[in-house]
Amino acid sequence: MSHYRSNLRDIRFDLFELLGRDDVYGSAPFADFTPDAADTVLDEAERYATNKLALSFSDVDRAAVAFDAATHSVRLPQDYRASAADYLSSGWLDLDLPEELSGQAVPPTLRWCVTELMLGANAAIPQGLNVIPQVVRLLHQEGTESQRRLAELITEHQWMVTMVLTEPDAGSDVGAVRTRALPRPDGTWHLEGVKRFITYGDHDLTDNIVHMVLARPVGVDGAGGPGTAGLSLFVVPKFHFDPKTGELGERNGVYATGLEHKLGITGSPTCEVTFGGEHPAVGWLLGDRHAGIQQMFEIIKHVRMLVGVKAMATLSTGYLNAREYALNRVQGLPLVRTDAAPGAVPIIDHPDVRRSLMTQKAYAEGMRALILYAASQQDRIEISRAQGTLDTEADACHQLLLPVIKGFCSETAWRILGQESLQTFGGSGYLEDYPLEQYVRDTKVDTLYEGTTGIQGLDLFSRKIVRDRGAALERLLVDMDKTADDGNDTFATERALLRAGIDAVRDMCTLLTDRWGTTDHKDRRPLAAQDTTRLLLQIGNLVCGWLLLRSAQIAEERTTTTAAADRDFYLGKAATGRWFARHVIATIPAELVSMQHTSSDLVELPHTAF
Questions:
Q1: pTM (2 d.p.)
Q2: CA distance 243 to 254
Q3: Distance of alpha carbon 148 from its chain centroid, rounded?
Q4: What pLDDT is stored for residue 522 in this prediction?
Q5: Ranges for the Acetyl-CoA dehydrogenase-like C-terminal domain (predicted)?
Q6: Which residue of 200, 383, 413, 606 pairs with 315 in a disulfide if CB–CB is 3.0 to 4.6 A?
Q7: How far apart are CA 523 and CA 591, in angstroms?
């Protein structure tokens, strides 16, 4: 039986009732994807995720990945390899390919819904494979003619790709990368160095692996300087290949030299990879310019959103498993005994269990709404590009929300899965009999890779807020103002709480901006930097609460007109919006008070005082 519990009903609510995607689907450039066609895609994706991809979930976790140091090779467990190969050939990855290669333009909102279903079912497999279309897209957009052909070969032969950034002494500080790239007379480059934490760095799933490697050019005018600006992006295959047919040739000089042993996502091979040594690691500069960090960030931005979706998807199935357990687990007498409940009751009848379930439900549904709201900005961007322009406001909003999605969703999902979802099962949740313990282990990494939460907080504040003087955030807050200030008395309390939360976040940004100062006065920046992660988390709470309240307003109207079969769904949506406003948004002003008391005492403490 599948562990995975999807929530298609909530996905459809967000798409068509909250975000109005039925006005976008079926119109250029998404003419092939009408609302009915999107419904069919969702049904088929849910069926595949639940009935096929999810079945190897626990086997993938418990069977060991094997590393042979003598041959520098990694072997995947049989069940993992079979499931991953099936997913690779299933066609679901084609939804993310460029239209020029796939023949279809799929709305980003729909693509992210499908991605949620796949990640919730068995994250270890799609979290690596879903990078393939992004590398294909980058090669197609930035590459030379032969590299655009490589993009086609990757899809035709189902080759794997990797993102190769991190080094043993250059983790979060990408600018400290030391891997070198030496130019050769034939136009190729020889790479030398060691990389770490490379997902799918080696394996026996595909015939070839195309590594996208950040390295520092040597002896080239205008390239290879210090910091991230001196990095270039190189295409380095595991095997050389015929550029026309894709027929494999000799082994290239890139080898797995270690395999990491991890807390979670254990089926996905994470490797140390060495370039050069006995044989040169031959690579090619991506395109014709040295713009490595800029090019790589086209993939990183996608992967950061992918991480947030993975976290949300895992919390969603964790919550739905917990709800199912709470409905069926009979334990304990009710606080108030009645003739209708004279004996033990399902634990969902206990008030604290209900509080816990609502906490899980609200955050899972709030984060889904946050992600799809950001994806709707991507819809706007693609529509504008099809018309030969760029929707700059949508682009700025999307950029603003990316660190929130990555940081807020990963931190919140990890916390709620452990504090609430697993807790619902009591001691049984600690056992391998239920999927919760694996959910908790698999989700922790989301707060770490592709930039830790602290880095996301600094990125949000210093790049997304300070650089544009808060314009993108203010436009978002103005939209929230409309929800807070307009409406009937039904949600008067909740709208007042939203108003207080909006005002508090505005004041937080003003406070931190004043502390951050100008480029000529940086001495107080450590004071501001103590609270940038907290700002990120509160913006996440606020956006989720706003979207949940909007959902509650829609649901309240539907409860009096909808069929009985759907009435409880809408009652739940209305209750969720109320609960989140009263118990989460209500706490945001207190966070402002705490930030106002932040002092320089902490940064002035000597190391030995810790």
A1: 0.97
A2: 19
A3: 27
A4: 75
A5: 479-606
A6: 413
A7: 24
Tell me, rounded to whole angstroms, the distance of Cα 542 from its chain centroid: 19
d(CA 87, CA 206): 12
Predicted pLDDT of residue 268 = 94
Angle, vertex CA 239, rays to CA 67 and CA 299, nearest 5? 85
pLDDT for residue 517: 87
pLDDT tens, residue by residue, 379-434: 999 999 999 999 999 999 999 999 999 999 999 999 999 999 999 999 999 999 99
How far is the C-alpha of 524 from the C-alpha of 59, rounded, in Å? Answer: 51
Domain positions in the chain are 159-290, 470-602
Measured distance CA(55)–CA(208) in Å, rounded: 26
Which residues does the annotation mark as catalytic?
A: 450
Q: Are 452 and 533 in contact (CB under 8 A)?
A: no
Q: What is the distance between the alpha carbons of residues 495 and 126, in angstroms, rounded to a whole number?
A: 39
- The CATH class that applies to domain 159-290 reads mainly beta
* Separation in Å, CA 122 to CA 57, 522, 592: 5, 45, 39
- Evaluate if residue 336 carries a pLDDT over 90: no
- Identify whether the C-beta of residue 574 lies closer than 8 Å to the C-beta of residue 556: yes
Long-range CB pairs of 509-518 (<8 Å, 24+ gap) are: 509/465, 509/470, 509/473, 509/535, 511/592, 511/595, 511/596, 512/461, 512/595, 513/465, 513/466, 513/470, 516/461, 516/462, 516/466
Predicted local distance difference test score (pLDDT) of residue 216: 98
Q: Which residues contact 499 (CB under 8 A, 6 or more apart)?
A: 481, 484, 485
